[in-house]
Amino acid sequence: MSSVPPCDFSEYCSPVTQIQSHPVTNMAASMSSVARLARLRSCFTVSTRAVSCFNGHAVSRVNSTAVNCRTVRTPQQFPEYLRLRHLHSRSLHTGYRLLSESPAAEAEEADLHNIIKDTEKVTGSGEQHSFQAETLKLLDIVAKSLYSDKEVFVRELISNASDALEKLRYLSLTQGGAREVDVPLEIHLGTDLVQGTFTIQDTGVGLTQEEIIENLGTIARSGSRAFLSELDNQGQSSTAASSIIGQFGVGFYSTFMVGNKVQVFTRSHQPDSPGYCWTSDGSGSYELAEAEGVQRGTKIVVHLKKECMQFAREDDIKEIVTKYSNFVNCPIYLNGKRLNTVEALWMLDAKNVTDEQHEEFYRFLANAYDSPRYRLHYQTDAPLNIRSLFYIPAHKPTMWDMSRQEGLGGVALYSRRVLIQPKAETILPKWLRFVKGVVDSEDIPLNLSRELLQDSALIRKIRSVLTNRIVKFLGDQARRDAEKYRRFFEDYGFYLREGIVSTEDQDERESIAKLLRFESSAEAEGTLVGIEEYCKRMRPGQRNIYYFSAPSRQLAETSPYYEALKKKDIEVLFCYEQYDELVLLQLRQFKTLNLKSIENEVLESDKVEETQDDSKVTLSPSKADALMDWMRSALGEKVTNIKVSTRLESHPAMVTVMEMGAARHYLRTAFAGQSEAERWKFLQPTLEINSSHPIMLKLSELKSSDPELARLVAEQVYDNALVAAGLIEDPRSMLNRLNELLTRTLDKY
């Protein structure tokens, strides 16, 4: 043994942590060379089974049908299936496992349930059959071009197996005696890295010789589609039809994407049916022969190409099944272990699903650890067949979550329980990307590969139905628990605003607008109201919904723009988020009522009369005209027009422009970096002055007695009005003027 070259198997298995009936485990695990280990081989005394150790690792014999471990003497003889055993959770095809997993692993092995056995044997000589020329061309397309990802062959085979089980289930109910009662309806998968094979076996209807030739010998001939046609002709219930997945007749041929040889062992459910073996390499012909030892149903063995050996690994197949077929309506076993243990809750009656089931399913679906804030279980059969389950997370989304647009669909799209798209971005609009869930519909139009959606009009219809239902659900929740909905809106209000801005459908905009919440001048600070509630409190004859954008309630209530409506006791919605302006500008109307910013110049639509208080000291019309002429000269191109306003009470002046909210947005975006002259030209601001305010009364006198100081005051009054209007982004430009005004004021004392 000393001549044996060293061989490191550390990538294949973990160091031994237990060797049965002997205390030398730690010493063996510390050896670093085969030669050293060989000298210690004779020290090992193992009861119950033989053990081979290399470089501190051990494997144990657990399957009597494989090679005996005692024949393994050198690292070169150490089989590749040791790696398979470590990587793929004690595959039944290898018969080896690490002793560190005993004895608990032995109990687990005893619980494995696997019907895949090598009992089939071809009897006699097979008959050669050739594919038709058209079929051969289509086969080449399916194998090379149809599917975008090779892994979908697993999905296709599972879907076919599920159909076979559903057919048998239906036949046993309608015809009786169609199935062997002691054989459960199951799908079994097997991986064998040593042989390089992937196996799938079902206990379904199986195939007769005629069905084999008809369905496997002709591409695009769907047995499932024929079965559905027969049900339709017989006027049978749609229960069985709704569970049938296949429709194109090409899924089976996806095996040739990954396999250089495919064997199909099948026996029909019909009494006294013989078994058959169908074999093909996909090159142009297939062989059909009778076989014995074939169980009822169908078993497909895919002999994998060298570059596709990942499909002989248990972990890879488990991931694929979990991704695509986790909710197929029948048990799926992989190397004897049940895979699909999570139930398809969206297919159940909502009344039969518990809170615990919802919580578990949400965490599985969203890969989350919290509980859902809201859940919506929605099912309908008209006008479209839809089974859906939606969740809204409890956690607050991050700024990164809100800013991302692509690849964020939180809804998985299924058709008859089979995954079509893990993140279906077309089923819900982008603004609902925070919703997690599942949509399953038999009406979803799929292309041949079942990977892409067709018929955009139907998809738009499904999206519209689901969007309206989610919006209605949120409205119901707002009425049911206002405080809980308030917390939701604080966290997810950004998405609702995005929905109004992004959609072009006015009805949809108004539906979403019902979900918006604002503070109101008629309510205490901190209390939120909806637009519908505002409308119920409107004064008789009022045709506008008034809103005002300000950074805070204090600034809103002390703003010159709010004074006139406050005087008339007209309710105003306060918007504290800067994008609220854009949202309400985009909304424009709500139930025939106009949404109007109180910053707009006139309130003519509601005939709010401007009255003069004769008790106040005010400038005469001639003095007011003289002051305005002087201010036009002092301010120059900064102002387009100056006029006297009686709407002001506690403020000396205010600035008005057409569509103030839009103007602010353009200044921050399109006019960012533009010259001051360009900005004034765009704004065309009007300065409204309060002719009874003390500043204006004094300024009228100061323009003659101290023109320089009057100019400083006029400019400051104007800039103050611009600040109040939110039209100055950086007020630091006023600092020099303010300092000069302070200096001149203090010089008098």
TrEMBL record:
The UniProt record lists the keyword Membrane: yes
InterPro entries noted in UniProt: HATPase_C_sf (IPR036890), HSP90_C (IPR037196), Hsp90_fam (IPR001404), Hsp90_N (IPR020575), Ribosomal_Su5_D2-typ_SF (IPR020568)
Gene3D superfamilies linked to this entry: 3.30.230.80, 3.40.50.11260, Heat shock protein 90, C-terminal domain, Histidine kinase-like ATPase, C-terminal domain
Major location (coarse): mitochondrion
Annotated residues for binding of ATP: E156, N160, D202, N215, S222, G223, Q247, F248, G249, V250, G251, F252, T298, R450
Entry's Gene Ontology cellular component terms: mitochondrial inner membrane; mitochondrial matrix
Statement: the UniProt record of this protein carries the keyword Transcription: no
Record's keyword terms, sorted: Acetylation, ATP-binding, Chaperone, Membrane, Mitochondrion, Mitochondrion inner membrane, Nucleotide-binding, Phosphoprotein, Transit peptide
Subcellular location: Mitochondrion inner membrane; Mitochondrion matrix
A GO MF label: ATP-dependent protein folding chaperone
Pfam families with a match to the protein in the record: HATPase_c_3 (PF13589), HSP90 (PF00183)
Family: Belongs to the heat shock protein 90 family.
Subunit-structure text: Binds to the intracellular domain of tumor necrosis factor type 1 receptor. Binds to RB1. Interacts with SRC. Interacts with SDHA.
Task performed by this protein: Chaperone that expresses an ATPase activity. Involved in maintaining mitochondrial function and polarization, downstream of PINK1 and mitochondrial complex I. Is a negative regulator of mitochondrial respiration able to modulate the balance between oxidative phosphorylation and aerobic glycolysis. The impact of TRAP1 on mitochondrial respiration is probably mediated by modulation of mitochondrial SRC and inhibition of SDHA.
Descriptive protein name: Heat shock protein 75 kDa, mitochondrial
Protein source organism: Branchiostoma lanceolatum (Common lancelet)
